[in-house]
Write a structure and sequence with these properties.
The protein is α+β, with helices and mostly antiparallel strands. The chain has 24 helices and 26 strands. It has six domains: about 60 residues, Helix Hairpins; about 240 residues, DNA ligase/mRNA capping enzyme (D-amino Acid Aminotransferase, Chain A, domain 1), CATH 3.30.470; about 90 residues, Beta Barrel (OB fold (Dihydrolipoamide Acetyltransferase, E2P)), CATH 2.40.50; about 70 residues, Orthogonal Bundle (DNA polymerase, domain 1); about 80 residues, Orthogonal Bundle (DNA polymerase, domain 1); about 70 residues, Rossmann fold (3-Layer(aba) Sandwich). The chain is elongated, with a radius of gyration of 31 Å. The N and C termini lie far apart (about 70 Å). The model has no long low-confidence stretch (mean pLDDT about 90).
């Protein structure tokens, strides 16, 4: 082990100790403190270190374990057939790597070369594995998986599950394997009972299933209304099926409940399609799902491929993109927003979560850093659910080595410009630059001013804005419209064509809707929807400029906080002069007459997800508003329709779960026609 750096050895030791502790909590006590996804992330880091430094790997390594030991309270059962666990993969590339290995093994076996290679794809139920033994069709024993060799006898508890037959349809000797699971619909009811009794609520359906099966009193188990799916036959006294698909059909024929959502695929593309389909549908199911399981369909190939030391070679679990993973905090930096508000950001060791690589996560504010007690060097649990911004939800304090650095909130931030002084906003957890007109803040205001939700000046991104500011060609927003060709050509890396393109974009943006004009000004509290509310109410910038606080506060969607902010901004002399200058260069378009009260979409709310081919999301929102509808960003039970374009996000699954009506693009176009 002398080839392993001390820092790596220390990190590995911490990982091994932490993983073993959480393995014990999960497999032995059924009281996990972290999610399966976070556990998987720790294990993947440990395996990666073992692959890089093989001398770290020992027979006692967590990577060499199959499961946990049984509890002493139940009688121990030695499994007649060893209970293996599947290796995991997390991407199409890893799936292909497994498939390449399988094909090479098949090619080495002459008897398999003409055997048809197909894959049986099944849903990976998030419950508790159970092994059922029948003699002449009669249920005689039920056991947990335990460590794969010895499990626990939970026969009496399993007898209470109505989907498990006490007598099979045929008098056969059989060992069947499946999953015990708990309904999501029942979870709330059980947790209400636990809270009333002063007990800790279950975190998820898997915890309920595991906790219920291991009750010493079968009456408690019976009251939980557990369910089951059987997916494998380990041993049978009659002829064994030739394929995995036929095995699942036999399971149903014998009287077991199996999951009907399996498919036979003849290619990796077929597997990927199955995986993606159920990833989107998972939230609509009544049971937990964390991926799919792929098995070679031919039993002949399965028998020939056999097993490694801990898993079958003929199958693999293809997990859904993790919504929780672990990573380390490399640094904490600050972002200054366009209104001068300061946001702390954690710089992370890059990690894939929910299908995308994340290297930064907001820490929100000083209070959040203190609440988490987050330190530079900490191992943290990172969460990203679907379209949601990555968020640090937990610090794994048991992974600390003592070298982590506590974070001290600064008194100055260079990005604020000038002397860099900062101040806490009265009554809030947020801090801001004392000088809200500093160079750093002004830059972000310009970035916002030219963005799509504001003036939408194409080709005028942050690099162009930085160059214009650094060369003193612009000082306020109005200066953008006063730029000449010679000014732009003087900038680095600007040729005649690029200069002309920029000026054409600026010229096109001189006509701007009132709502976008308001959004572009960076008025605190005024976002896209508030800008629309103000524009639709006043129809004129002059009326908004001279509106009193009381009038503003009464507008639906505005309220007192926003109303005071809008009034204060326009009352400022410098802001008033800025608006006067802008009005010399731009034409503000009045809001189009909408059918807000009489349109066909009155009273309906819409959420758009995915990409529409016929229009942008902003155009779709405008059409919805013009017909009296209300576009929204989040799905709820009150949402009338979800408009699903290509590559929809997690909003589709949530809409399906809440029974929200879903429109594809064709149906949406027909509705708004």
């Amino acid at each position: 082990m002398s080839d392993v750096p001390v820092s790596v050895r220390d990190r590995y030791g911490k990982l091994a100790k932490t993983i073993d502790r959480h393995r014990y909590l999960y497999h032995v006590l059924d009281a996990p403190e972290i999610t399966d996804e976070a556990y998987d992330s720790l294990m993947r880091e440990l395996v990666a270190l073992e692959e890089k430094y093989p001398s770290l790997r020992t027979p006692e390594s967590p990577s060499q374990r199959v499961g946990g030991e049984p509890l002493a309270e139940f009688a121990k059962v030695r499994h007649e057939v060893a209970q293996w666990s599947f290796d995991d993969c997390f991407s199409f590339a890893e799936l292909k790597k497994w498939d390449d290995k399988v094909r090479k093994l098949i090619a080495k076996e002459p008897s398999l070369r003409h055997e048809k290679l197909e894959y049986c794809c099944e849903l990976k139920i998030d419950g508790l594995k159970i092994i059922l033994t029948y003699e002449k069709g009669k249920f005689v024993r039920g056991a947990t998986r335990g460590d794969g060799v010895i499990g626990e006898d939970v026969t009496q508890n399993l007898r209470t599950i109505k989907s498990i037959p006490l007598m099979l349809n045929e008098p056969v000797d059989v060992i069947a394997v499946g999953e015990c699971w708990f309904s999501r619909k029942e979870l709330d009811a059980v947790n209400k009972e636990r809270k009333a009794a002063g007990e800790t609520p279950f975190a998820n359906t898997r915890n309920v299933a595991a906790g219920s099966i291991r009750q010493l009193d079968p009456k408690v188990t019976a009251a939980r209304h557990l369910n089951s799916f059987i997916y494998d036959i380990d041993k049978i006294s009659t002829g064994f099926p030739k394929t995995q698909g036929e095995e699942l059909e036999l399971v149903a024929k014998l009287g077991f409940k199996n999951n009907p959502n399996f498919e036979i695929a003849d290619s990796l593309d077929g597997i990927q399609k199955y995986h993606d389909t159920w990833q989107k549908k998972r939230e609509s199911l009544d049971y937990g799902l964390d991926g799919i399981v792929i098995k070679i369909n031919s039993q002949k190939i399965q028998a020939a491929l056999g097993y490694t030391g801990k898993a079958p070679r003929w199958g693999i679990a293809y997990k859904f993109p993790a919504e929780q993973v672990t990573t380390t905090v490399l640094d904490i930096v600050f972002q200054v927003g366009r209104t001068g508000v300061i946001t702390p950001v954690a710089v992370l060791a890059p990690v894939v979560v929910a299908g995308s690589t994340v290297s930064r996560a907001t820490l929100h504010n000083e209070d959040e850093i203190r609440r988490l007690d987050i330190r530079i060097g900490d191992t943290v649990v990172l969460q990203k659910a679907g379209d949601v911004i990555p968020d640090i939800v937990e610090v794994m304090t048991d992974m600390r080595s003592g070298k982590e650095k506590a974070f001290v909130w600064p008194k100055k931030i260079a990005a604020c410009g000038g002397d860099g002084k900062i101040e806490r906003i009265p009554g809030q957890a947020a801090w801001r630059c004392v000088d809200v007109n500093s160079f750093g803040v002004q830059k972000r205001k310009f970035y916002h001013f030219v963005s799509k939700i504001a003036f939408d000046i194409d080709g005028c991104g942050p690099r162009v804005i930085d160059a214009l500011l650094e060369n003193n060609l612009i000082a306020d927003f109005a200066d953008l419209f006063a730029l000449k060709r010679g000014d732009v050509l003087a900038l680095p890396r600007f040729a005649e064509k690029s200069a002309d393109n920029l000026l054409v974009s600026i010229e096109k943006s001189r006509r701007v809707p009132l709502a976008k004009f308001l959004v572009a000004l960076s008025i605190p509290q005024v976002g896209e929807e508030t800008g629309i509310d103000l524009a639709n109410h006043f129809h004129s910038i002059e009326k908004i400029r001279h509106a009193g606080t009381e009038e503003l506060e009464k507008i639906s969607g505005v309220g007192d906080v926003v109303g005071k902010s809008v009034h204060a901004w326009f009352a400022d002399r410098d802001n008033a002069r800025l608006v006067d200058r802008l009005l010399k260069y731009v034409v503000i378009e009045k809001p189009k007459e909408s059918n807000a009260r009489t349109g066909k979409l009155v009273g309906m709310s819409f959420v758009i997800t995915g990409t529409l081919s016929s229009m942008s999301r902003e155009e779709a929102k405008e059409k919805i508003r013009a017909l009296g509808g209300d576009p929204s960003e989040s799905v709820s039970a009150k949402t009338s329709y979800l408009v699903a374009g290509a590559d929809p996000g997690s909003k589709l699954a949530k809409a399906e779960k809440l029974d929200v009506k879903i429109l594809d693009e064709k149906k949406f176009l027909a509705l708004i026609k």
